[in-house]
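User: I'm new to structure prediction. If I give you an amino acid sequence, what do you actually give back? Let's try with this one:
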Amino acid sequence: MKKIIIWLAVVLVVAMSALVACAVVFEPSPVLETVSVEIGSNSISQEQFVKEGKTVQLVTDLSQISLNKLGVYRVEFSYKKRTCFSTLKIVDTTAPV
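Assistant: Good question. You get back a string of structure tokens that encode the predicted 3D arrangement of the chain. For your 97 residues, that looks like this:
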């Protein structure tokens, strides 16, 4: 009976360790998958990409992205020693007059 209790305790510790490891490895991205802005917008900021309550470091220089040209850009962030990416889409949703 004592061996069974020890065995169950070991299994429980291993299972809990695995759950904690999975939570760290599979933590959701702190940035939005995609951000769309209208062509001709004045500016774009890091805050538009970041999920509420998260703090990330912007790696991509947003000033190098032209907001006057349609396109899709990969934006890189650093978060807790890992790299995260978001997609910036410059779109034209205004109908011609």
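You can read the tokens as a compact description of the fold. Here is one thing that stands out. The chain has a mean pLDDT of 87.
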